[in-house]
Write a structure and sequence with these properties.
Layout: H1 2-14, H2 20-44, H3 47-51, H4 56-85, H5 90-110, H6 118-148
């Protein structure tokens, strides 16, 4: 079902090859894919070290470190692209700030500042990434729906 929905979004987006909306929608689609894939991959990451015999605390710390590195790398690239493209809206800054907050939370787990509630903090970071992905998705769908309305 999700694949069919994604395929229809890509098809509709692929039919629009010009205009400023196309570039904005491509950014939204990329943002949605990147944040949701990061959330997907790192939702499973804490369990891999545990299956290899590493302790629970070390598993959460290791997964948090990799999650923070991946999120930080993505933000650094997006921030650089934003500076080049001058794509600076208040929503873009808010999304960057929220993701940076998740990275700080993950880094605090990775260095051992949070150990008793590591799993809960990790889940909050996953929720943040899924929320950002949802915002990208909703803005993409709304822009596609509003562009298909006939002029009054």
């Amino acid at each position: 079902m999700a694949l069919a929905g994604f395929a229809s979004l890509v098809t509709v987006l692929g039919q629009r090859h010009s205009g400023g909306d196309f570039e904005v929608n491509v950014v939204r689609l990329r943002g949605m894919l990147e944040t949701s894939l990061i959330a997907l991959v790192f939702s499973l990451t804490p369990f891999l070290p545990r299956e290899l015999g590493i302790s629970d605390v070390a598993s959460w710390r290791l997964a948090s470190a990799f999650f923070a590195l991946a999120g930080g790398a993505r933000l650094a690239v997006k921030f650089t692209e934003g500076l080049v493209n001058h794509a600076s809206t208040s929503l873009a800054y808010a999304l960057v700030l929220v993701q940076a907050l998740a990275i700080v939370l993950l880094a605090s787990i990775a260095v051992g500042l949070v150990s008793e509630r590591a799993s809960g903090c990790y889940l909050i970071a996953l929720f943040i990434y899924l929320s950002v992905s949802t915002i990208f998705f909703l803005r993409l769908v709304l822009s596609l729906v509003s562009s298909q309305r006939p002029a009054a």
